[in-house]
Amino acid sequence: MTDTISDVLSPRDESRLELSSRARTVAERAAALVPIAVDPEPGDLITQAAQLRALAEELLGAAVVAERERGLSADQIRECAGTQNWRGIVLSWVHDGRRNRSGRSGSALAENLDAWAARDAPGTSRPVTDGLDAVRFPGTAQYEAHHRDRVAGLHAALAEALQGRGEAWEELNALTDEDAGVDHPVTVRAVAACRTLASVYRDLALAEPGFAEEYQGEASMFTDAADRFAEHGPFA
Q: Of these four, 1, 27, 47, 114, which has the most CB atoms within 10 Å of its CB?
């Protein structure tokens, strides 16, 4: 085993690093509340606890993503995490490239987390890194790089389609109800933007079947929006 790991990690590894990183943040912020501050500002304790709860909600979202990357179905996620619609959180992860949000490569983040976690795991120098697929199954690195390259074009198309949709929505917001008829150029562009997004999401559902439910849900939503705009206009 080498001392370093590939910078091209699987989405599953990246999701576990994202979860690990957020867990460290929650642990550090929770630990900061343990010492009793003398005469804190009124409401300060509630504010800190509320901020910690928000971080814990983000941690739960990261756990949902990690479980989806491990193969748990959307229905199983709802059984474990409640009936909240988790699709937006999963899609946000997809839109971010299925990589951790620390701004570091996976290998660098793993090394950083190792140093933090090793304090509570005597005798284990790499409690985070050694749990990654890239270390447990080193031969997968080439496959992961190939798979990311294979779907890179679709994700680039998705980013472009999302930008087009955002621009169309800005133009729609500048219109009045009277202006925004079905034949208005802005309405036509909005319809086209929705249909493009629906098409890309359908292609992604085939290319990345693990997230087919989320992708198909978005495809259906944008198809319905396009049909509604084309028939009734955006403000019907």
A: 114
How buried is 82 (Cβ within 10 angstroms: 0-12 exposed, 13-18 middle, 19+ buried)? exposed
Residue 73, token pair as written in the block: 């179905």
CB 111 within 8 A of CB 21: no
User: Of residues 5 and 71, which shows the higher confidence score?
Assistant: 71
Instruction: Estimate the crossing angle of helix 106-117 against helix 11-32, to 10 degrees.
Output: 40
Other beta carbons within 10 Å of 127: 18
What residue has token string 């009277």?
178
Q: Which of 138, 139, 142, 111 is nearest to 126 (CA)?
A: 111
Element (H, E) at 161: helix 141-173
Closest CA to 225 of 202, 199, 194: 194
Alpha-carbon distance of 181 to 74, in angstroms, equals: 38
pLDDT one-digit tens code per residue, 146-188: 888 999 999 999 999 999 999 999 998 888 766 667 888 888 9
**Tokens in use for 148?**
């990311």
Query: For residue 119, which of 31, 59, 35, 13 has the smallest C-alpha distance?
Result: 31
Q: pTM surpassing 0.85?
A: yes
| Residue range 100-137, pLDDT digits in tens | 999 999 999 999 999 999 987 778 889 999 999 999 98
